[in-house]
């Protein structure tokens, strides 16, 4: 009490508002304070909150208490003549003199925050006493409204105490004024509604109301409620930082669906400090078409940086749309996001500046989910058709445990009518989700590393540019085994796939079929190679590994570490013909681990070529069992051109952008 007496004497007649101005608190208070309620304000200090509630007609029967005699006398003097129905009393809220169930509302503005400064035993005991007194003087159905900055230990203490007592706990975020914010952190109001505690009653009810919506969201535990508040505090800090200085690194955040709480938009904030500012190029929003968020331009930091530079804006916010959500076109997205993205505006944005929404072709793209299921090995996955540039459509397989990576992709051929067949309006019908909408273009290789892997087959010895036997492991739904089967007409292809669900997906949705020259072995690639090595030697002209790792904690996502251990690589060498080639897709971000893998490969294979895929982590390794097969770059180019001529036969489609010799220009010998 002596501390607060000294504080208020030094401050004089000036009101003290720690945080939470009345205009910001008013919308929340109106929901829970009725004109005829009897209201108790604990730790009132010199705040104008009670006076403003009285003057606005929100409520008149207001009792204010505080332990500071100086502030009580000051506030009595200030309101005696103007507010006759409101009173100020010198009283300790830990020992209140009011009878039980005397008030409908207890209002606390910063008092709990001021008391609960730590989690020492004495402090917690004092807070328990405060809560017990508030509970005693409140009627059943009454509300304890606590205005707070919601530090984690403060919120957790209040929630656990009152939910354990059987009260309903709801947390409101207060909408702050962006023009005049004393605190960067947002202000919250805890609303605890008193119910009689009944043994064995229904589970606790915990809810949060974000500032932009009225409908409360239910959460399951105090920990989830604290985490939800932390998310909003982090967002407020982020917005404050972005409004003051350009961000050196790209910032990403998810905006979630109000109903489900699941991510609806993923935003990346990209600043271009070198961009010369003008009135019209400060800020823009770029909507990534559905299904294209994994493309290099939109899905990588460097790609987004180039996009921002080419768009010509100092700050560009890219917006990715999620497959589980429904969107009402560009206009609907713009209406939904306009208010929120302005919170991410850069410093120096002119007042009332119109912020443009950009996209590719002016629309939000097309994404159609064809199939979704769960595999015991691969987890949840979806097969979806997405629209690319122009009129092209692509079919993609995505594992939802890593939803930003396209596991496999095929290009769809537009359906063509039979000769002499005319389209009739009544024949037009949309394909059902159970059937593919078009045939698969088997000439399409979706990945640069797949193109490099095929180009590497020109390393095979002998004069015949087309190999006879080929084994592959991994990514059955991708175009690589189909391409090898359809273009290397003498090849017999053995594909190894560990997940039987993927064989079904590949057959049903990606045009895959087995035959005399293409067989699938559902097996672990490690076991299959070991079995072949034990049975016979020198069986294959080419062996190709494109196997992703399920262990995301390792710095190598392709292949799993066991596939590049020396004993296993020796088995691979055993089943490879002396003039054959082993092709490996290596994706390794750990430099030390990568050097170790390369050293092991050199121990087993005397001749090792490498081709780094530009703009990606992928590195394609071409390994040969004999150093005599070494070829210089000029010879490699000639062999690649010979192989391409053999593959490009009349009547067979060919992707004109795919030049085998170009894929080998950057090959190095290790």
TrEMBL record:
The keyword Isomerase does not apply. It comes from Phaethon lepturus. The keyword Metal-binding does not apply. Residues 411-438 are annotated as: Disordered. Keywords: Methyltransferase, Multifunctional enzyme, Transferase. GO terms for molecular function: methyltransferase activity. It comes from the Eukaryota. Coiled coil: none annotated. Signal peptide: none annotated. Belongs to the methyltransferase superfamily. SUPFAM superfamilies: S-adenosyl-L-methionine-dependent methyltransferases (SSF53335). GO terms for cellular component: cytoplasm. The lineage of its organism: Eukaryota, Metazoa, Chordata, Craniata, Vertebrata. One of its GO terms (biological process) is methylation. Residues 37-155 form the Methyltransferase domain. This is eEF1A lysine and N-terminal methyltransferase. PANTHER family: EEF1A LYSINE AND N-TERMINAL METHYLTRANSFERASE, SAM-DEPENDENT METHYLTRANSFERASE SUPERFAMILY PROTEIN. Residues 421-431 have a biased composition (Basic residues).
